[in-house]
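Exercise 7. Given the components listed, write out the predicted structure of the assembled complex. Treat all entries as one system.
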Amino acid sequence: MTAVTFIRPGRLLVEMSPNNLFESQIIPVADKMYRFALSILKETDSAHDVVQECLAKIWKNRNKLSDIQSPEAWAMRITRNQCYDWVKTNRFTVLSENESNKPNSDQTDYELILADQTKWLERVLTSLPEKHREVYHLREVEELPYQDIADTLSLSLSEVKVCLHRARTKIRASIEQIEAYGIAN
Amino acid sequence: MESRIKELQEKYWAGESSLAEEAELKAFFKKNPSMAPEGRYWNAVLKKQKETPDTAFKHPNTSSWRSKWSVAAAITVGLIAAILVIQDARNQSQFTVEDPKEAYEITRKALMMVSSGLNEGKTYSKEIANINKAQEKVTEDK
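Answer.
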């Protein structure tokens, strides 16, 4: 029998420093964190402030990054928690600001989709339960795998799939209604 | 191509599509924007993906270093100012003059310094008196 000798690589070659991990894993997802915060808070300045706080929080805990399986899902979970903390402390402000962002309720979905498709989608999403809305955003906008969505929202894989299917069904029903309305006119 | 897109759409709405298939659908609608309701839906999703903050995020590291540097700079400026004030106060020590001529000269210089300030005020008060006189004349003429 012949013995084979392996050379164990140095720790520095295998593992990145916490600072490098922060630069390579967290900074590139800052815009994703912002969009997710915006989908919850509906207010650009608040979403920006919340994400800035999250980045500071993650920076403080950057030593944990090497032990985390999906830093992106971790960053998204921190963003979500920070958003709901913000809503708790600024409840009144959020409600009053959301009112001003709402699309004109007199417009039908058909009229709204022709005028502003983003506002139409926003209206459909607002009618969904919170959990469905979050799953939808993480999958369609941020393109996260099911497992990462489950980790971010502390849900099981099957729950994620059910939420996404229900959100899509609701959107499809709205599209079909619009198509029927367009043909009728 | 059309049949492939239809197949992907069916999978998508049934909740059976993979991330790669969804990316294929998005790429198709990005290349071929449609004004039909479903095309508008995809346009809205693609638009949502492009949302970015108006102002870039500050790196948590640089911001803390900047604030540390500004605190250090403020402390240094404060210390220098304090040293200068203390040195100036020390220089203002008492002194005695034996020669009466020299004492007279020092007193004269000090009084001249005070009176120059008073004279400045005097010129302003003269101007104010002139204005008052003119105002009185105007009111008398009325």
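Discussion: Residues 97-142 of chain B form one domain. The first helix of chain B runs from residue 2 to 13.
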